Amino acid sequence: MTEEPAARRRRWQEADDLLLIYRETMGRPPRLGDAPGAALAVGPQRALYLAVDAGGRVTAFNGHVDLGTGIRTALAQIVAEELDVPLARVAMELGSTATAPDQGGTIASETIQIAAVPLRQAAATARRHLIEAASRRLNRGTGELVVAAGTVRVADEPDLAVAYGDLVRGGRTELTLDPEAPVKPVEDYAIVGQPVPRVDIPAKAVGAFTYVHDVRVPGMVHGRVVRPPVPGVETALGGLLLGVDEASVAHIPGLVGVVTLGDFVGVVAEREENAIEAARALRVTWRPGETLPDLNRPEAALRDNPATPRKLLDRGDVERALAHAEARLDRTYVWPYQMHGSIGPSCAVAAFRDGDLVVWSGTQNPHVLQSDLATLLDLPEERIAIERHEAAGCYGRNCADDVAADAALLARAVGRPVRVQLTREQEHAWEPKGAAQVMDVRGGLDAEGGPAAYDFETRYPSNGAPTLALILTGKVTATPATYPMGDRTAVPPYAFGNARVTVHDMPPIARASWMRGVSALPNTFAHESYIDELATAAGIDPIEYRLRYLPDPRAADLVRAVAERAAWVPHTRPGSHGGSGDVLYGRGFAYAVYVHGPFPGKAAAWAAWVADVAVNRVTGEVAVTRVVVGQDSGLMINPDGVRHQIHGNVIQSTSRVLKESVGFDATGVTSREWGSYPILAFPQVPEIDVLMVPRPHDPPLGAGESASVPSAAAITNALFDATGIRFRELPLTADAVRAALNPPRISGPEHPGGDSAPRRRRGFLAGLFGAGAGALALATTLLPWRPAYPSIERPDSAAYSAATIAQGRLVAAAGACLVCHAGPDGRSFAGGRGLETPFGTVYASNITPDVGAGIGAWSYPAFARAMREGVSRDGHHLYPAHPYPSFAGIAERDLQALYAYLMAQEPVARPAPETGLRFPFNLRPLMADWNALFLRPVATADPARGPDWNRGAYLVEVLGHCGACHSPRNALGAERRGEARLAGGFADGWEAPALTGLSRSPLPWTEDDLFAYLRKGRSARHGSAAGPMADVVASLAPLPDEDIRAMAVYLASLAGEAPAPRPTATATSRPAGSASLFQGACAACHEGGAGGDLVPLGLVTSVHSAHPDNLIQAVLNGVAAAAERFPNPDPGAPPAAMPAFRDTLTDRQVAEVVAYTRARYAPDAPAWTGLEAAVARVRGLRPHAGW
Amino acid sequence: MQDEGRPMAEDARPHDARLAPARHRLHVNGRGVSVEAAPGTRLLYVLRNDLALNGPKYGCGLGQCGSCTVLVDGRALRSCTIPLRAATGRRITTLEGLAEGGRLHPVQEAFIAENAAQCGYCLNGMIMTTVALLTANPDPSEAEIRDGLRANLCRCGTHVEILRAVRAAAARLRGRAQASAAAQASAA
C-alpha cells in the first residue's frame, strides 16, 4: 500500500532537509471544451517540480503520466543528466494530483516536447543552487568546481568535495524555477541520448509492480457496473432505466449493495467473483435506445452527420485550376471505427476518508478527472486526490476515467473503499472509439503531369467523450460537444500551388475520442494514397514524384534515406515485384510528419515507410512481410525507447490497417471480445528494419505516434503495386480484398444465418394435441378419471432396513431422479424444476415425504401406480415428462426399495410450482387416451445374451429411462419403438444423440468409451457430457462399476442395430462462417492448448450432429469443468471450463462461429442451415441448471 | 440479458449451490495453501484476491488474451477459465513462483534484458507461456515460437522485443542445461 496522498503532500510541504524547486504560472493548462478564459481564471499557480533530499536522492514531478511508452525512464534521464546524478537516484512521481503539477492531459506526443521542458529547467535551477552552495562550503569559485554522480568537487583537488545530500541537510530551501538557469550543452550529455534499460520492467517481470489493478486498500470491497443496452452510444443515454429488481441478487453471498442513480447501475460485494455474479444476475429493465445508422460502412453516416465546415487553408485558385486540369482525379478514402483495445480492462479504487475522496486510477488526465469527479460528486476539487498508477497501454482515451467515476459513486453509496474493474465486454463496447473518418480529394494533373490542385475535405465525428458517469447520472447532457480535432495533419506536406483544406467538425455518432495518430492517420492515408495515384497517373516513380513537391529539406533527407535503406527500385506502374503461384508481391511508400495539437499545431517526429506485402489472390489474405521505417526524432532521450516506440507503432498500425474495424448493429457496438475485433498476432508480425536519423543537436520531438502515421498509405500503395487495385477503404480483410480481386458474377448476400424456416422440434407431447380432431375424438371411449388412493400417515422410515434404503438410493441414482426432482439447494427431492415443452412448462413435483407438499401421504400402492402407470395418488394423470412408460417394467423389489429410500428423506414442506399448460393441453384427462395407446412396457430380457447385457438393458431401458430423451417421439409425443428406439431425440433444449448405429460420431462408441463417459463424464474420443446428460452422469455416480459396465455393454450392442447413413456435404467454394472470429474467440484453447487437453473438435459428437443445438448450447452457456460437474472426474480431463458467450456474442456472431466450426471440423457433413434463428431459439431457453 | 418471468426457484437453485463457499486446498508456488471460496470461483480471483499474487491479470475472462496465464502441472493455462475446484490437486505456478533460490528464471532474465514490455500488462502471459513452450521444446524455430505465442495478445506492439527475449531465453536455458550436463559428466 502506498502512502496516503495527503500525507505525502504534507511531507513535501513541511519536511526539512530538502531542496525544492517550484514553478509559478498564471492559470492552468487549457482543457478541451474549456469556456474562454477558464484556464486563466484559476489565477496564479505554484507547483512542485523537483526535490533533492539529504540522501542525495532526487524526486521529480510531472503532470504527464507513463502510458506504457517508457516516459518514466526518459524523464528520469533528463533530470539525471541535468543534475549529474546517477539515473538510479532519480524517482519520478507522475500524475498524482496531490503532488504533481497540472500539465494537462497526456496526449499528442507532447511529453518530451513540452512537459519535459520545465522539468529540465527545474533540474538546472537546482544544479546552479547546489554548485553555489558548494562554492560557499568549499570556499572555492564556482568555476573551479565540477559535478559527478551527485557530488561537487574542486576540479584540481579531487579530495575536496561535498555531496548534494550534505548541501541539502540541515535546512529547507524552496526556490522558484528559473527558465534562464544555464542548461548543459548537448556535447556534454552522458545519460540523455544513451540507450537505457526501462526502470519499470524488472518489477513487472516478477509480478512486483503495482498497476492500478493491483491496488488494495484496507476494507476494500468489489464493485461491478451494469451498462445500458446501447453499447458504446453515449447519445442514446438518458432516462433508459425502467427498473432494477434487487430480489434477483438476494441470493448472492456477501452482497454489499445495489446502487442506482439515473442510468447508472452498479453492484458491490465482499468478494470479486460475487460482484461479477451479481452484475450478471441482476435483473434490470431498460427502455430501448434509438436506432443507429449503419456504422460498419461509415461513409454514408458521416456524410449525413450535421457538420460545421472550417477552412484551414486556401491557396491559389483551386476551382480555376480544377476547371483547367488536364485530367481530373477525384477520390474518397474511408477509415473505419477502431478501438484502443487496452489488454487490461479499466480499473479503479475509490475511498472516502473523512469526506475526502482518494481515487487510484490509470487515467491519462489526472487533473481533468479531478474536475470531473468534483462535478459528479458536488465536492470541491481540493477534497479529491487522484493517485495515478500505471494501467494497460491505452493509446488515447479508454475507459480509465469512466471506471474511476464508477468506483467513486459506489464507494460513496456503500461507505467503503470499492475497487471496480470493467469487463472485457464493457471495455470493448464503451471505450470511446477511434473515430471513423471520410476524406474527399478533388484534384488532378496539369499539362506537365504535376498536381493541378488539391481540394481536401475531411469528416471526423469525435470529441472528448465526457466521463460516462456524468452522463449516466444526468450531470452533463447526453448531447456531447463537438471538438475540432479532425485537423491533425490535415494540411498535406506537399507544395501544391492550388490547395484548399476544409475540416467538417461534427459531433460523435458512436462514442469516440482521440486515439493514437488522432485524425492525422486517416488524413495521411488520403494524402499519401492520393500523391501515389497522381504519380502513377503521371507515369513517374512515386518517390521521385513526392520529392519534386516536398519543400522541407529534413523531410526530403528522410525520404531519400529510407528509399536507399530499402533498396527502392524506381518504377512507374504496378507489378514491380511480380508473384508466384497465387501469391502476388508488392511494395509501397508513404511519408508523414505528424502535426498534432490544435491547428496549426506542432510537428512531432518525421517518419517514412517502405512496406512489402504478399497477397493471396484466391483467398484475399494480405501479409505485410517487411517494413523499412525511418524516423527523424531530433535528439533522442533514450534511443532504445524510441526504437521500441517505432516497433510498437509499426505493429499496431499494421494491425489497424489489415484487421481492425469495430462492428455495429442498430443498438451499438457488437465487437465485444477479441474474436470480433481481431488484432495482429505473432505469426503475422512483419520483419521491421528501423532507421533512426541521428540529430542530437536538434530539439527532441515526440516519438510516441509518428511512426504509425504513414502506415495505411504505405500498405495500400504496396497492395496497389501487387494487384493494380487501389484500396481506399480499410481494413484490408481477406473478405474485402478477395471481393475486390474476384468481383462476384452473381450478387446476393449470403450468410450462415440463412433464411430457411425454423425447424419444428418434437418435444414432450409435441403433436399430441396438434394432431387435431382425430386424436381428440378417441378420447370419449376411455376412462378419463382414475380413483384416488386414500392418504396415509407418513410411513416410519425405521420400518425399512438400512440395506433396503441403500438399495433404493442406487435405484434413485440409476433413475437419475434428482436430475428433474432436485429442489432449490440442488440436493433434496423438493422438485420445482421446469421442463420446457412447446405447450408450457411442466414442473417436477416434490417427492420428499412431506405430507402436504410431497408424497408423505402416499401408500406404496399409490406410489407404484404413479411410477408404473402415470397416475397420481388423487387419481389425476401425470404428463409423460414423468417417464412412467419406462418405469412400467421396474422390478418390484427395486420399486419398494425406492419407496423406502424416498420415505427416508428429509421432508420439505415447500410445494413445487403448479404445472399450468395452455388450453387444451391443461386437460389432464386426455392423458388416459394417450396411455391406452402407448403405455406398454419395453421388453428387455433376452436369455440369449449374457447377464451383463440383460442387466444393462434393464438399467438403460427401464430404470435409466434413456429413451425418454434419446428416442424420437411420435406425433402424439410418445417414444417411438422398434428401429427408431434410441435413435435420437430432444430434451430440455438439448439434442440427445442417437445411441444406435444412427450415431453420427466420427469414431464408433465402444464399450470402453461408453464406460468412461458414463462413469467419468468424458470420453477422450468423443467429448464430455454436458447439459442434462452431465446431470445424468453425476447421478449415476453411486452405482458400482459393474452396473456402469453393464450399461456400456448393452449400449455398445445397439451400435450394430442400424447402419448409419452418412450424409455428405455439397461442395462449396465459399468458406463458411467466420475464421477470424473462431481464431480470436476459440482457437487459444481449441487449437492452442490453453485450456489443457480438450477433446479435439474434430471428434466431438455435437460438431457432427444433424442438429446444431448442442454446439450452440455450449457456445452460449459454456461448459462446466469436469471437476465441477462430476463426482469422479476423469483425471485426464482439463481443469478449464468453457466460458459462456451468451452476454458477449450476438446471434449472428454465434452463428458465424458455429458455421465455421462445422465447416472446419466436420468437413464431410452438410452445412447447418438457419443457424441464426437456431441461436435465437436456443438463447430463449433457460440455460440448463448447474451450468 | 435476463429472461423475464421465471420463477425464483429456477434461477436461484444452481447459483445458490455454486456460490456457497467451501474450503479448498491448493498447491501454489511450491506450498500448500487453504482458501475458502465458492467452488466455481475462477482461479484468477483466488490467486489475486486471496493469495495477493498480482502476476496473473484479468484481461478478458474468456480465455482469449492470455494475461491471466499460470502454469498448471507445467502447462500454460488460463486461470480465468479454471474453477477453483478443478485447481485442487494440481501444481500451480504463477509469475511470482518462477524464481528459484532467489534467482530469477532465465525467461524472466531474458525479458528484462531485452526490455520486452511496454505497458507490461501482457508480460505475465508472455513469460509464463514462454516457460511452458521452452520446457516442451528447448530449441524452437522462429515459426514455432510465433505459433506458441499466437494466442497471447499484445496491444503495444512489443512483439519484436518479446520474440528476441524468447530466443535469448532459449539460448540461456540450453546453455544452463549444457553446463549442468558437463558438470555431471566431469563429476562422473
Automatic annotation (TrEMBL), chain A:
<dbReference type="Pfam" id="PF02738">
    <property type="entry name" value="MoCoBD_1"/>
</dbReference>
<dbReference type="InterPro" id="IPR036909">
    <property type="entry name" value="Cyt_c-like_dom_sf"/>
</dbReference>
<keyword id="KW-0408">Iron</keyword>
<keyword id="KW-0479">Metal-binding</keyword>
<protein>
    <submittedName>
        <fullName>Aldehyde dehydrogenase</fullName>
    </submittedName>
</protein>
<dbReference type="InterPro" id="IPR000674">
    <property type="entry name" value="Ald_Oxase/Xan_DH_a/b"/>
</dbReference>
<dbReference type="InterPro" id="IPR009056">
    <property type="entry name" value="Cyt_c-like_dom"/>
</dbReference>
<dbReference type="InterPro" id="IPR046867">
    <property type="entry name" value="AldOxase/xan_DH_MoCoBD2"/>
</dbReference>
<dbReference type="InterPro" id="IPR052516">
    <property type="entry name" value="N-heterocyclic_Hydroxylase"/>
</dbReference>
<feature type="domain" description="Cytochrome c">
    <location>
        <begin position="803"/>
        <end position="906"/>
    </location>
</feature>
<dbReference type="InterPro" id="IPR037165">
    <property type="entry name" value="AldOxase/xan_DH_Mopterin-bd_sf"/>
</dbReference>
<dbReference type="Pfam" id="PF20256">
    <property type="entry name" value="MoCoBD_2"/>
</dbReference>
<dbReference type="Pfam" id="PF13442">
    <property type="entry name" value="Cytochrome_CBB3"/>
</dbReference>
<dbReference type="InterPro" id="IPR008274">
    <property type="entry name" value="AldOxase/xan_DH_MoCoBD1"/>
</dbReference>
<feature type="domain" description="Cytochrome c">
    <location>
        <begin position="947"/>
        <end position="1055"/>
    </location>
</feature>
<feature type="domain" description="Cytochrome c">
    <location>
        <begin position="1069"/>
        <end position="1161"/>
    </location>
</feature>
<dbReference type="InterPro" id="IPR036856">
    <property type="entry name" value="Ald_Oxase/Xan_DH_a/b_sf"/>
</dbReference>
<keyword id="KW-0349">Heme</keyword>
